């Protein structure tokens, strides 16, 4: 197994653990913020307990995303393959892989191609 494949396997396990924790907290009536590059069908959003959902969908153009990934600090944890995966991720963004999720609740969209005013974003949320 390649190191990148091992990183992807670990990512799947982490997202499953995140889903389990979020579901448990929601069942206990605790407010939760979950962040990630979620896609429709992700375990986190299956059979959600009753909750008021605000989805903050953050995006940027594929070109900007690739540029940002290539420019990330090379001293990040070795589980990240930002520069190596930049073109692949940009292509997936262009193909719509990470569009807003089909969730009940409120949707706030934030395009960071040009950096937004964070006070305005916070006011929307």
Quick gist of this model?
The chain is built from four helices and two strands; from the N terminus they run H-E-H-H-E-H. The protein is mainly alpha-helical and 125 residues long.
Largest beta sheet, briefly? 2 strands, parallel
Rg, nearest Å: 16 Å
The fraction of residues in strands falls at: 5-15%
Can you count the beta strands?
2
| Total number of domains | 2
Gap between N and C termini, in Å? 42 Å
Question: What sort of overall outline do the alpha carbons produce when their principal axes are compared?
Answer: globular
Helix % is 40-55%
Strand order of the largest sheet: 1-2
Q: Structural class of the helix and strand makeup?
A: mainly alpha
The stretches of 5 or more residues where confidence is low (pLDDT under 50) are none
Integer average pLDDT: 90
Distinct helical segment count? 4
Order of helices and strands: HEHHEH
